[in-house]
Specification:
- With about 220 residues, the protein is mainly beta.
- It has 1 helix and 12 strands, in the order αββββββββββββ.
- The chain has a single domain, classed as Porin.
- Helices cover about 10% and strands about 65% of the residues.
- The strands form 3 sheets. The protein has an 8-stranded antiparallel beta barrel. The chain has a two-stranded antiparallel ribbon with strand order 1-12. A two-stranded antiparallel sheet has the order 9-10.
- A hairpin with a 2-residue loop joins β3 and β4.
- It is elongated, with a radius of gyration of 33 Å.
Length: about 220
């Protein structure tokens, strides 16, 4: 019996020593560090945009929708993002007056704007303002029509966020004030007042160059 106990003790001692030697021989491996993605907004982008437009005028109150394209460039320093953006869209915003005798319809609209905002990683809050235009047509009695280009200014604000490495989505409000024009100057001149448009639009942009910087 003593021999059996001695043999068991020796076996346990040898097993423990082998395990300790095995652990000592294994190389130490550092646990992997989590990777955090840091978004840099600098770069060129293209996108699509669409939304709704309406007027608060006293006589003709045009309203409708629009869809078009966007191009722009951002430059980021720290958390501040500067940018310039241009957009153009086909529009269908209209209304009639004087019992349907006069119809006004905006066929296209666009802007060229500066942007300045504050980036919280993949989310950008910004203000914007600059030049605005619309292509508008007035029709009299359903028979004769005349189109004019109205120019003015715009100001607004929005928020944009990356939802994929090179893709972002944005929501934006713009107020557009456009100067009056004289229609039918060779027949019966009709001078409009200032066109004031409110627009709410959404867009999706593709950013070139890859805006994500991996931080370890």
């Amino acid at each position: 019996m003593k021999k059996i106990f001695l043999a068991s003790a020796c076996l346990l001692a040898l097993t423990g020593a082998a395990s300790a030697a095995d652990l000592a021989a294994r190389p130490y491996t550092k646990a992997p560090v989590a990777v955090a993605s840091v978004y840099n907004w600098t770069g060129f982008y293209l996108g699509i945009v669409g939304g709704g437009a309406w007027q608060n005028a006293s006589d003709i109150k045009m309203k409708g929708g629009f869809v078009g394209g966007t191009a722009g460039y951002n430059w980021q320093t720290g958390n501040v993002v500067f940018g310039v953006e241009a957009d153009g869209a086909w529009a269908d915003a209209s209304d009639t007056a004087f019992g349907g005798l006069v119809k006004s319809k905006t066929d296209a609209m666009g802007t060229v704007r500066g942007r300045i905002g504050y980036a919280v990683n993949n989310v950008l809050f910004y203000g914007t303002g600059g030049y605005a235009w619309v292509d508008n047509k007035i029709t009299l009695l359903g028979l004769v029509s005349d189109s004019k280009w109205h120019s003015g200014w715009t100001v607004g604000a929005g928020v944009e966020a990356f939802f994929a490495p090179q893709w972002s989505v944005k929501g934006e409000y713009l107020y557009r004030s456009l100067g009056g024009e004289t229609y039918f100057s060779g027949i019966a001149p009709l001078t409009t007042g200032t066109l004031e448009y409110h627009t709410v639009q959404v867009g999706v942009n593709y950013h070139f160059g890859g805006p994500i910087v991996a931080k370890y």
